[in-house]
Amino acid sequence: MKQQWFVVVLLLVAAAAATEKQKSDKKHNKISEIEKKLDALLELEAELENEIIDAAKDEEEGDAEEEEAQDMQREDPKIYQIDVQEDPCAGVPCPAGRSCVVTMSGKGACQCVTACEEETDPRRRVCSNHNETWMTDCDLHRQRCLCEDGLAGCQDDKYKHLHIDYYGQCQQLPECEPEDLADFPRRMREWLFSVMRDMADRHILSAHYEKLEREAEDDETQKWSNAVVWKWCDLDGPPKDKVVSRHELFPLRAPLLTLEHCIAPFLDSCDPNDDHKITLKEWGVCLKLDEEDVADMDDLCEDIRDQEAKPVKKI
Ligand SMILES: *[C@@H]1O[C@H](CO)[C@@H](O)[C@H](O)[C@H]1NC(C)=O
């Protein structure tokens, strides 16, 4: 669900930028800035999906079911390609770098992908947590898989923990200048609000978020806080545990890192106690909302979730 959601959002966001451009002249320079980011975001939608699955898998590491699947693989090295008709892989989502294969015993198991497509486009490259460039996200995730499973082709044991730091070739990221960082919360809020507005225009926000969006349109004081709440609620989950973990920030961080030099220090500043969890209040503070707004935000988000659990009648 989440992956699909992101794809939809990214597409819409791109369209948003186009509409925005026609709509408003005075925001012209801001919009072209946003558009640049969106182009990059669009290209990356596929990688995001993978990485989200990957992140989900990380959290499940040590999961008994998975171990079982791996044991099965070892006993049963002969594999068949999947038959779509009676597909034992149908209910088996594989993390990035793995694909489901049907074992002799007729079960689906996630095994390292055998090969990645040749890719010469430098835009497909990814920079790892070791500051090493990989040709594609597929190559990176495949390498990690080989190391996790102790297979031939694993280049170094450390690659068990390989992950994407950001999209694009590894590079000397320009320093985030203090004045840029200081301005970052404002730009982030603008961006969040324009994404939210566009989704509302297209009626792909839930009725309750649409209501928040209308409130934001009508009441200048609600403008930022509603967009900020919406994004936070969206980043959190599933499971909706009322904190946004570092993993959950991935969709925001990785695509923007090479374009927005301040995104990493900014997101770090949202987690001042460095527990790798961002509460809604921390999020609000770091987006520089008014203290009063921050104080109210918890309830607002809770409301939304409660209401969303029930079926909603669209007006
Ligand atoms: C990462 O690698 C790039 C390119 O090889 C280099 O320019 C940069 O300084 C490295 N960054 C760090 C933090 O080591």
TrEMBL record:
Gene3D superfamilies: 3.30.60.30, EF-hand. Residues 54-70 have a biased composition (Acidic residues). Residues 174-286 form the SPARC/Testican calcium-binding domain. InterPro entries: EF-hand-dom_pair, EF_Hand_1_Ca_BS, Kazal_dom_sf, SPARC/Testican_Ca-bd-dom. Its main location: secreted. The keyword rRNA processing does not apply. Keywords: Calcium, Disulfide bond, Glycoprotein, Secreted, Signal. Residues 54-75 are annotated as: Disordered. It is found in: Secreted. Residues 1-18 form the signal peptide. One of its GO terms (molecular function) is collagen binding. One of its GO terms (cellular component) is extracellular space. The keyword Disulfide bond applies. This is SPARC. It comes from Hyalella azteca (Amphipod). The gene is LOC108678889.
